[in-house]
Each structure stands twice: as C-alpha cells, then as structure tokens.
Design goal:
InterPro entries: Bact_CCA-adding_enz_type3_sf, HD/PDEase_dom, HD_domain, HDIG_dom, NT_sf, PolA_pol_head_dom, PolyA_RNA-bd, tRNA_adenylyltransferase. This protein has 476 residues and is α+β, with helices and mostly antiparallel strands. It has 23 helices and 13 strands. It folds into 4 domains: 158 residues, Beta Polymerase, domain 2 (2-Layer Sandwich), CATH 3.30.460.10; 81 residues, Hydrophobic Seed Protein (Orthogonal Bundle); 173 residues, Hypothetical protein af1432, CATH 1.10.3210; 48 residues, no CATH class. Strand 12 and strand 13 form a beta hairpin. Helix 1 packs across helix 3 and helix 18 crosses helix 22.
Length: 476
Amino acid sequence: MPPTSLTPDRRARIDAELDANPFLAEVGALFEAAGHELAIVGGPVRDAVLGRPGNDWDFTTSARPEQIESIAASWADAIWDIGREFGTIGLRKGDHQLEITTYRTDAYDEASRKPEVRFGDTLDGDLSRRDFAVNAMAIRLPSREFVDLFGGLADIDAQVLRTPVTPEQSFSDDPLRMMRAARFAAQLGFTAAPEVVAAMTRMAERLEIVSAERIRDELDKLLLSDRPVDGLRLLVETGLAEQMLPELPALILERDEHHRHKDVYEHSLIVLEQAIALEDRLETAPDLVIRLAALLHDIGKPRTRRFVEGGTVTFHHHDVVGAKMARKRLKALRYSNDVIDQVATLIELHLRFHGYGSGEWTDSAVRRYVRDAGDQLERLHILTRADCTTRNQRKALRLQRTYDELEHRIAVLAEQEELGSIRPDLDGAQIMSILGIEPGPEVGEAYRFLLDLRMDRGPLSEADATEALLAFWAAR
C-alpha cells in the first residue's frame, strides 16, 4: 500500500509531543554526535499520530548494546541491561524510562521458544520486521523526520491491521504476533486484514512454541484493554484460543433445536462487558481479576451439561467444576497464586446469591456469604450483578432489587458486627484452657464449632460461648 502523507494536524501532534519532552532531542543529539542513528519507533509513534497519551518510549538505533551504554553513560540517571541478549538497554532520565534496541532482524527457529537475535544495519530493515504496519512507523532524532515505509498512516485511516511483510513471514518470525493482532483489535478498535486473519487461522498451532509467560502477558494486555471482547472473538474465530485458552471456545455449545439454554459463549462475553461497566466500584480499574473471573465463570458448564426428562438442560455444580478448571488453566499460564486463588474463589461463589431464593436472607446466611467471599466481596458483588443477562426486564429488575437488599443487609450487619473479620467468640488459648486439652486437631474441631455458632447466632458473650462449648464437648 503506498504511504499516505503526514497531514498538518498529525505533524502538529508529533511536534507537540516532541516539544513537551525535550529529553528526546537530547538523546537524539547524543547518538548523532557519536555517529549513530536513533529513532523513536513502534507504539509511541502510532499513539502520537492518533493523539493518544503515552508514557513509554521505544527507540531503535544502529549502535550495538555496548555502544548504547557508552553513549548514554554520562547522560542517563540510571542504566540497566536486563535485555542485553535481545539488544535492548534500558535508561532512566528524570521521570522517563527509555528502552533503546539495536536494529534487529529476529526470527524463531522452528522448534524454539525464544527468537534468534540478529542485529541489523538499517532502519528500513528493522521496520520491515515489525509486527504490524501501524507499528512500523518511526521518527528520526534529532531531525524529527517521519518515516512510514509500509503504509502505517493509511492503515490508521482505514483502522486495519496489516503486516509489513507477508503475514506468514511475520508470524513465523514471532508467533506471538498473532495474539498481538487480537490485542490491538481490542486496544485500538482496528480490524485485522483478511490475509492476516487467514494466516492466523492457518498458523494457530505455531503458538505452541511460545512460552506460557509471554502468552499470559499478551492475554493480560488484551483483557485490560477498552474492548477486550473484540480481541477475544478474534482469538476464538482463528483457533488461537484453542491453543492457549481452550475453555473459551468450548463454551460454544451446540444449541438444541428448542433453544432450551442460553448461548454460554455469548453470555460469558456479555458478563465480561457488564463487569467492566461496574469496575468503578473498585479502588483501581481496569481490574484483571474481575475480568478473568467474568470471562471464565461458566467454563464448568460444558462438562456438567445434562439433558433431563421434560426437555430441561441442567449444569449442576458447574461453579465448583469451573473453579477447579480455572485453577488448572491459570496455573498453566503461570499466573500468580494470588490471582489464581482470587479468580477461583469468585467462580466458586458466583451462584451463591441465587441459592437464597428471592431475598429470604437470614443474618446467618449473610454472615456466611461475607465470610466465604473474604476480601473478594466487592468483586463478588460485581460478578453476581454482571451475571444477570436476561432480556426479561421484570426479572432483571427483581434480581437487581434483591441484590440491593442483600448489600444493604451486609452493610447493616457489618456496622454492627465487623463482618469483615468474623472470628469465634473464644480463641484457641481459651478453648484449650476451658476444655483442658493440648494443641491438636481437637482444638480445631472446637474452633470450627464456635465459628459456626458465631455465624448462626451472631456475637456471644464469653460466658454464653463457654457454656455452648462445654455442651458441645459433652455431647461429642
């Protein structure tokens, strides 16, 4: 595609960004004085053209890593070389972080999980090996020359994702780029070109050589974007999801001829969107845990689906089964134990609200709901509300009112009883003293009895708790 000229308004955006960050001209002059080329490249250039705010600065240069360090040594406030093997040196200048990478022509070996790093000699060659044309634009420093060899501006105008070289070559160089296509679809609202989609579909299995950590990081960026559903649909349609998150396409259950159950896949995507709309209830947003939980909350349904007499479809215990499946998948993707525990807890509890009918919540039930949710209570509120996707307005309003009442009950009891830190009315030392027993399983048994008692009856005095404990022990 022939390059599109840089319009005056876009030129003005780029110049304004460069003027607002004078350190860019400084570092460009340093490299020029040392006889090396330096250019801003990739996302920062794309975002400057789009008028999107950006804080990360990526550079490419003709200098080799050791030369980068030498040039920047007296200018940068800090230097780190954790990416040296890939040709990348990191710098900090004031509040800004920079990554400067030697011109590269990377490629994956057929059986390798890591790219074979090959240094290049020209900016043109470096840009040709970028993932997409919208990321293959550059700004030379300090001259501010804008470089667009592969039609990135035209693709921005068309809101399309194309590769600088053939998609097959680009995805062979780095198969993770296929996931990046889905991520940019979600982040930018762009559409992958037909030839890109076709190559992703043909080459989906190539993703298996990419490490779980890189796949997880790319999935996180997709999920935390403004439109994650757009990217997820592309992953499913091309078969990429089958390689890294097979539980998602498995939700596309064959619907029976009488349409006796919802489309679980579409339902899950709607729940994700509705959960995102409620994220303002949380202290920070976007929130990865609630988005993972919303997306995966029904993954237990395919394994638990049963057609019973009368034409009813059931998914008994899909919450428990789904929580176990989520743990296994998230562990395989190398998520932290904290994230795995939080997501699994939300999935396991997402049906709890519906187990209490239309609002007949006892104080005991409210206490148990809060205790089991623990520090995930606010996320559980969001997931439970988002899980209502019925088109029946009367039913939707009834569920909303019922959950409003539950949250009100929680707030009232929380003020009265400090629900967030429910403990038995006697601690372990008191239990051992009262019963005359040593540390061991019996103490835990008594502790659990008192905790259940606390859930059922609320706070007790020490005398009443002691009396109940002794009665329990005598009848044991």
